[in-house]
Design a protein that fits this description.
CATH superfamily: CBS-domain
CATH architecture: Roll
CATH class: Alpha Beta
Radius of gyration: 18 Å
Distance between the termini: 24 Å
Number of strands: 5
Low-confidence stretches: none
Strand content: 15-25%
Shape: elongated
CATH topology: CBS-domain
Bound molecules: adenosine monophosphate
């Protein structure tokens, strides 16, 4: 049976750093820095996902518009068409989504609400755990 997002969330927790749509890019940058993360999910009422804003968007806005973009609300710069997953999504499906679409963050949704987030770092950690477990099982098998 393939490993799912549920396993990743059980290990890392379901906390997600979120911002409202009117937060400025400068404040969003502060939040990314303070939490040592690469993305915030932009949410509206009842934790409904409105968009995602990542360090890539911050760099693009400064490169494209200039430092004055730091005063703009995240709603103007965020990606509104957010690819999501559920707890039942497999790690293989996640890897396929992240690599083909070239993003490193996927919010998890349950019943239309945000219920977690998986980053490419979480996926790599999970893969390492799986490989280590397989190695241990092989060693035990060989040792009889
Ligand atoms: P990232 O690699 O996650 O920093 O994101 C690269 C670009 O893809 C940025 O423009 C993000 O806003 C966008 N992005 C990140 N995650 C997602 C997602 N799950 N769905 C849609 N766009 C995303």
């Amino acid at each position: 049976m393939s490993v799912t997002v549920k396993t990743i969330l059980a290990a890392k927790g379901r906390n997600v750093v979120t911002v409202g749509p009117t937060v400025t890019l400068a404040d969003a940058a502060k939040i990314l820095h303070q939490n040592k993360i690469g993305a915030v999910v932009v949410v509206g009422m009842e934790n409904r996902i409105l968009g995602i804003f990542t360090e890539r968007d911050l760099a693009s806005a400064i490169g494209r518009i200039g430092p004055e973009s730091l005063e703009q609300p995240v709603s103007k710069i965020m990606t509104a068409n957010v690819y999501r997953c559920t707890e039942e999504t497999t790690v293989n499906e996640l890897m396929e989504m992240m690599s083909s679409r070239r993003f490193r963050h996927v919010p998890v949704e349950s019943d239309g609400r945000l219920s977690g987030i998986v980053s490419i770092g979480d996926v790599v950690k999970q893969r390492i755990r799986e490989v280590e477990l397989e190695t241990e099982q092989m060693k035990a098998y060989i040792a009889g």
